[in-house]
Amino acid sequence: MNALINALHNELQISESSTIIEKLFHIQTQSRVTCCLCKTEDTTDERTTFLPLPLPLPKLHPQQKCLLLEDLLSFFFEEDTLDGDYYCQKFDTMTQAKQKTSLRHPLPRVIIIQLKRFTFDDSNNKIHTFVRYPLQNLNIGKYLAQTSTNDTFYNLIAISVHTGSSQSGGHYTTYAKNNDQSEWYLFNDSFLEPVEKKIQDKQLLTKHAYVLVYQKTEIS
Ligand SMILES: [Zn+2]
């Protein structure tokens, strides 16, 4: 999905300065590196098309049966110590540095979140921990570099679901919302079926969720 979005953006950029892909999907971020010795800050503006959120390994956290999406986001945007040494120009010596990623305006209309369920180590195991995510009003305001309370709410519009125990096997399905009718549908290979309204919330909150797609509330 990421490769497709980037390819479309590059193609459209030839004729447009600001592409539809940019407005829809580009998440503007700021990376701030702070020298632990002289406290000098170095900020770099970056962009991404999705947020890959790591999940704690169950073998290290066996008691953790349920995670909150908001906690995974807070962890992702938390300040952390950079791996390896950092060169401090002021004191001309090697030291350590802290790094923090924040979101920047303008926020995209759509935010794609990947729950990193695959470990990509020798075991190639999948992390099955249930992640509870809001169907409505995900507030990403606190992850902004400059605090803002406007336009920071998102509603869920699609869920990519993976069932199976590893990335090399299993099956993908998708739940997607028709915003005009406010109805959810399940896409399963060539089958399409509406999600019953009375069991909708339960069915949409699945432990097999792999990718979550959120849309800004102002246009839903
Ligand atoms: Zn320094």
From TrEMBL:
GO terms for molecular function: cysteine-type deubiquitinase activity. InterPro entries: Papain-like_cys_pep_sf, Peptidase_C19, Peptidase_C19_UCH, USP, USP_CS. GO terms for biological process: protein deubiquitination. Pfam families: UCH (PF00443). One of its GO terms (cellular component) is nucleus. SUPFAM superfamilies: Cysteine proteinases. Gene3D superfamilies: Cysteine proteinases. It comes from the Eukaryota. Residues 1-217 form the USP domain. This is USP domain-containing protein. It comes from Didymodactylos carnosus.
